[in-house]
Amino acid sequence: MSVPTIDPVSALASAPPVVEASGVTKRFGSTAALANVSLRVMAGESHALVGRNGAGKSTLVSILTGLRKPDEGSVQFNGAAAPPIADRDAWRERVACVYQHSTIIRDLTVAENLFINRQPKKRGVIDWPTMRREARALLDHWRIDVREAARAGDLTVEARQLVEIARALSYGARFIILDEPTAQLDGEEIKRLFKRIDELQREGVTFLFISHHLQEVYEICQAVTVLRDARHIVSAPVAELPRERLIEAMTGERGGLNVADAAARAALPAGAPLALEVNALAGHDYRGVSFAVRRGEVVGLTGATSSGRTSVGEAIAGLTAQQAGEIRVKGALLPPGDVPAALAQGVGCVPKDRHHEGLVLTQSIAENASMTIAGRLGRFGFAPPAKKQRVGRSMIEALGIVAQGPDHAVAGLSGGNQQKVVMARALASHPDVLVLIDPTAGVDVKSKEALLSVVDRVRDEGKAVLVVSSELDDLRTCDRVLVMFRGEVVAEMPAGWKDHELIASIEGVDLHEE
């Protein structure tokens, strides 16, 4: 199997776009995931695709890689129409995506991963010497310094990404989509990856670079396209789009969500006692995290997906165990990774994944809402049905859950009403500290309003609330917001922050940098 050759860089200037999406629309039911979106990526460049969560980036990538067919519009590669969806080999020859979560099979060798499902054979069996020899030639050609016989799971994240890129190039693809490639890398690894991307560009490889870290866009990319609310907002050379304009294009105008803004609240009385203390917390994707939340205070913890914010919230709720540091609730030390202990000491939680951590879909509203207090309702955790029904009815009324009654199966509820049931479960134990992780993800406007109104109510009761989210509307309810970047708390913003300032901090952009 020979290594494909490429055209010289000097020929790229006159080449047609490596990929061009024109007027692409994709609907899922009544929801438009993409609405008349266009994108043009020129040969040999790194082109950034940015936008907030839900902007349509993932849907566009699925269309550019042939995983979905657009309802309207077209996709061309090098001036020719995209191949039929069923022709996977033709798609592999044109485009590949290196995802944030690696598709490398860790228990196989590098050579086996490079040639998976297309191993060279001799007399009907795999020709191992030939496969290893061709793998070595491929790695040498693209100057990727890993051993072909190494177990993939023993490689660094950086090395596994480069192996994925080499695999894509071996099919003949010269257009690589990098989805959050730096999310799991440290500073030196990021520098090395960017250097390798630059070298590959010079050899004629084109990249579509997806990242929440806008500073990286300015470091590695020549052009940028912004999506917002499923629509194309702007495409421009990076050098002609200042940071403030890029952030403005991503955020737009805030919608009319009726959510109380913490900036209008009276200040918390001086000397309010502490409800939650986090000291020098460290885990697999965060380190040195320290902060405190007072009774009657709402604190936001925000950052990009890879910032470590979710892991910190889960550690406080006992869903995961920290590797170092301590968590105290009303002065009492919480044992690491112990949900029952966290509940007993007054921590309630709305977890990130409601389907896997927050609900039993086959059970009723009453069963789910009373799950955290079953021990209080009956001996040995067996609660009488009548008591569960009372809890269910009270939560339906308090949170405005649209259902036939407390016996209604949670699986039959809308996403917004399911999330209200998760909130009901968290509130049932009357927690002193309420941890909300992405509390309004995937719900409609009215459900958002109902869920966020709970924050004000709980605060007025003198409880502490930690809102772990990257959604701006969630964070407006907070008296102050802590910003995490690559595992560390890097900023604190009081209520009344400006959208562009907070987003710049989340994305690691210095607005004052020349």
In short:
The chain has 514 residues and is an alpha/beta fold. The chain is 32% helix and 24% strand. It contains 18 helices and 22 strands.
CATH class annotation of the largest domain:
Alpha Beta
- CATH architecture descriptor name of the largest domain: 3-Layer(aba) Sandwich
Structural class: alpha/beta
- Low-pLDDT ranges: 1-11
Q: Name the shape in a single word.
A: globular
Note the gap between the termini: 49 Å
Q: How helix-rich are the residues, as a percent range?
A: 25-40%
Beta-strand fraction estimate: 15-25%
Number of DSSP strand runs: 22
Query: What is the overall number of helices?
Result: 18
Radius of gyration: 25 Å
Q: What is the CATH fold-level name of the largest domain?
A: Rossmann fold
Q: Mean of the pLDDT scores?
A: 86
Strand line-up of the largest beta sheet:
6-9-10-3-11-12
For CATH, the homologous superfamily of the largest domain is named as P-loop containing nucleotide triphosphate hydrolases
**Number of structural domains:** 3
Largest sheet: 6 strands, mixed
Write the layout of secondary structure elements.
Layout: E1 19-28, E2 31-41, E3 46-50, H1 57-64, E4 72-77, E5 80-81, H2 88-92, E6 96-98, H3 110-114, E7 121-122, E8 125-126, H4 128-141, H5 157-170, E9 175-179, H6 187-202, E10 206-210, H7 214-220, E11 223-228, E12 231-237, H8 243-251, E13 274-283, E14 286-294, E15 298-302, H9 309-316, E16 324-329, E17 332-333, H10 339-344, E18 347-350, H11 354-358, H12 365-369, H13 374-377, H14 385-399, H15 415-427, E19 433-437, H16 445-460, E20 464-468, H17 472-475, E21 480-485, E22 488-494, H18 499-506
Parallel strand pairs: 3-10, 3-11, 6-9, 9-10, 15-20, 15-21, 18-19, 19-20
Antiparallel strand pairs: 1-2, 1-4, 4-5, 7-8, 11-12, 13-14, 13-16, 16-17, 21-22
Helix pairs in contact: 8-18, 15-16
Protein name: ATP-binding cassette domain-containing protein
GO molecular function, one term: ATP hydrolysis activity
Domain ABC transporter: 19-254, 257-511
